[in-house]
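USER:
Working in pairs, take the chain set out below, taking as long as you need, and write a paragraph about the fold.
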Amino acid sequence: MGLFMRAYRHAAIERSPSAPAHAQKLLSVAGDFRNAMMMFYGAELADDFNDLFTKFIANPINIIEGFNSNNRQLIDQSLRSWYSDAIVLSNFLNGMNSYWDANQWRIFLHQYIQLEMEMITSVIAKDYEREIRIFDRMIDLASIMGSYMARGLMAHQPQSEPPPTP
């Protein structure tokens, strides 16, 4: 997701005609996660996750549009929405899997938002060296989040019916 977000961020801020294609690819990442989640949790929970995750990853699109159009109200509203979506997503993940702590997910997602905002403002300022340093930190965070998610998936045992009595 980080690579697709970075490609979108640069295309959108630079007002490249490729920005819509990058946005479409970025938003499709949620479907990939949905498909993986479906194997563990079924279609209904996977679909709910897909909706929440798509909403979460769409927020930078509005924030960048706010910067491009010099619309501070859009930036502020989108940032508030992004943090709110992070809380909802954190609580949902905790409800899916008791090994995923809502507070831990909230910390991860808030760190992600902070790093994304730093990268957005770095690209706008054309401080590409700073953006690369922040991107390296983002890759580290993504690795930690992925490991946390994988550990929860491995620890989670689907509830099954008790074996029949003889």
